[in-house]
Amino acid sequence: MKTIYFDNNATTKVAEQVLKEMRPLFCELYGNPSSMHTFGGQVGIKIRTAREKTAALLGCDPSEIIFTGCGTESDNTAINGTLAAYPNKRKIITSCVEHPAVLSVCRELGSHGYTVVELKVDKQGRLDMAELEKHIDDNTALVTIMYANNETGVVFPIDKIAELVTGRGVVFHTDAVQAVGKIPLNLSKTNIDLLSLSGHKLHGPKGVGALYVRKGTRISPFMLGGHQEAGRRAGTENVPGIVGLGKACELAAKNIEDENTKVKYLRDKLENAILKKCPDCRLNGDKDNRLPNTSNISFEFIEGEAILLMLDKFGICASSGSACTSGSLEPSHVLRAMGVPFTAAHGSIRFSLSRYNTEEEVDYTIEKMPGIVNQLRW
Ligand code: PLP
Fold first, then answer.
1. Residue whose C-alpha is closest to residue 351's, from 100, 1, 5
2. CA–CA dist 237, 234 (Å, integer)
3. Ligand 1: which of 150, 183, 194, 195 to mutate, judged by most atoms within 8 Å of the beta carbon?
4. Which residue of 54, 239, 242, 248 is surrounded by the most CB atoms within 10 Å?
5. Which atom of ligand 1 is nearest to the CA of 101?
6. What distance in angstroms lies between residue 71's CA and the mean position of ligand 1's atoms?
7. Distance from the CA of 78 to the center of ligand 1, in angstroms?
8. Which whole-number Å values give the CA distances from 141 to 90, 91, 344, in the listed order?
9. Residues whose beta carbon lies within 6 Å of some atom of ligand 1
10. Residues 90-128: tens digit of each pLDDT
């Protein structure tokens, strides 16, 4: 049975061209980029090229990119590194719909005496700018707000938020793990100080990420050890991963147009048909300000997991908005924060597409969904 992969916000297929660039770095060009010999030096050049490609996608200077081990590490570094650089400031502002890579770090800091503000969202998953402005004060070290939500795809007005926050003299970080490669970004035109991204969300490999640090932004290193990454992130570089990330960024820059036309067309076709053909279902999140690949739909009176299992029988991969913890199904913190009723939050499914999906896959899923929903409601 053919696999139909609609779970690209969880992870993506590595592009063939990415794999091709990575392959020689394992058994041929395996030198340490910090070595004095020419053999290692060639590898250093590969890292430099990857840094340039990553910077080109983001519209920043290569020296502003630090390679990390994943999106989670980038987020942790941004938060902890900023707080360490501003030891006299004890307040962080974030949103209640962040990924755990941000939210759990902030909550942990809260238990160590920091004041943590988790901004609320409205029914469509949108932030209130006035509420954000109200909370910024002289004690605030950092505001960290995600670019796009991983569950609903809702995109926040990050440029405006960055302008507001930095205008008050506070450092601004954004977790752009889901946004990079899906929507155009140009850091040269924004006030963002710190931005996180992850290789495996944009058809690059797992185990590599990057943190953009605007020139002049004060941040203490999170990983201590050797002098790699200009002393900003110790540890021998994951060279194949970094080279893969660089290639993935180069391809993303070329494909961003497709992402917003072809992928969006397929997502809209799937979403509209499901909403039309399946009774008692609703779209979650701000319809007009969303990633082009993401659709989060709630099916009343059914468990999301039951739908996933049925979809799986047809080879269709998606994900649900619930997390199975200690035997009880907890609805997603994102949907709960948006005030989605309990019955609907329990039955939510996220479809996340990529440039590798086809219209046939979408048509096949549209054909199967009403039967699945009817069978489960019967
Ligand atoms: N931030 C967001 C918004 C994410 O969606 C994810 C992964 O799902 C992460 C951070 C963590 O990225 P990584 O898996 O590279 O650690």
1. 5
2. 8
3. 150
4. 248
5. 10
6. 5
7. 14
8. 6, 6, 37
9. 70-72, 75, 99, 101, 146, 150, 175, 177-178, 198, 209
10. 999 999 999 999 999 999 999 999 999 999 999 999 999
Q: Could you tell me which of 297, 293, 303, 289 has the C-alpha nearest to residue 273? A: 297
Match 């209130």 to its residue by tokens.
128
Helix or strand (DSSP H, E) at 251:
helix 239-258
Round to whole Å and give the CA distance between 353 and 318: 9
Q: With beta carbons less than 8 A apart as the criterion, state whether 109 and 116 touch.
A: yes
Separation of CA 207 and ligand 1 centre (Å):
11
CA 177/CA 208 separation, integer angstroms: 12
For residue 89, report the distance from its CA to the centre of ligand 1, in Å.
Answer: 27
Taking a C-beta distance cutoff of 8 angstroms, is the pair 246, 50 a contact?
yes
Residues with a catalytic annotation lie at: 324
Q: How far apart, in whole angstroms, are the C-alpha atoms of residue 239 and residue 128?
A: 41
- Tell me which residue has its CA closest to atom 8 in ligand 1: 10
In this structure, what token pair is assigned to residue 8? 């690209």
Nearest of 160, 252, 165 to residue 210 by alpha carbon: 252
% of the chain surpassing 70 pLDDT: 98
Helix (H, G, I), strand (E, B) or coil at 234: coil
Q: Are 221 and 232 in contact (CB under 8 A)?
A: yes
Strand pairing partners for 194? 173, 213
Q: Which atom of ligand 1 is nearest to the CA of 148?
A: 3
> What is the pTM assigned to this prediction?
0.97
Q: Return the SS3 of 204.
A: coil
The rounded mean pLDDT for the chain is: 96
Closest approach atom of ligand 1 to CA 98: 3
Instruction: Determine the 3-state secondary structure of 90 from DSSP.
Output: coil
